[in-house]
Amino acid sequence: MGVLETIYIVCLICGVLYALFALIFGHTGADGMGHGHAHLPVFQPILLVSGATAFGAAGYLLTRFTSLSTLMVLGAAVILGAGLAVAAYFLWVEPMSRAESSTGYAMSQLGGKIGEVSTTIPVNGLGEVLVTMVSGTTFHMAASLDGIPIKQGTRVVVVEVRDHVLYVTPFPHEASEKEEE
């Protein structure tokens, strides 16, 4: 077994092990590298590993089952590995980068949202507010921003979020109706 054949096998085995690791633990590195730095798609782990795996598989198979020269096998393996990496970019990474990545949200995104009091909010205590988000409805601890009690069923506006507590005030339309009664 020659040096190149050993390199092909190592690339193939490492790629297969990476794929198994990604399958079991769920992270393939498709989100790229650099987090806030220049984004170079060629350095994404999923592309590097898929290219190296294809390089290893092509090199090993061409060495074992063809009569091509070592240099031709090496060239073909490089071309096939690079081709698979480019195909993976256009068929997997690029479409996934445009897809919605999460239905989650940050607490800081709740400011300005409309909710409904599900548990009455006392003057100096906490109640609970139901807020509808893209991902569904969520319940959050809430306190009155104005220091007034807010009854269950009242629509409220989230004014600010501090320490995972929503500070709310009655929705203006709801407040004017309560005053008229």
TrEMBL record:
InterPro entries named in the record: NA-bd_OB-fold, NfeD2_TM
Domain Membrane protein NfeD2 N-terminal transmembrane: 4-101
Annotated transmembrane regions: 6-26, 38-62, 68-92
Keyword annotations from UniProtKB, A to Z: Hydrolase, Membrane, Protease, Transmembrane, Transmembrane helix
Aminoacyl-tRNA synthetase keyword on record: no
Pfam families named in the record: NfeD_TM
Superkingdom of source: Bacteria
Molecular function per GO: peptidase activity
Keyword Cytoplasm applies: no
Gene3D superfamilies, A to Z: Nucleic acid-binding proteins (2.40.50.140)
A GO BP annotation: proteolysis
Name of the featured protein: Membrane protein implicated in regulation of membrane protease activity
Organism: Brevibacillus centrosporus
Phylogenetic lineage: Bacteria, Bacillati, Bacillota, Bacilli, Bacillales
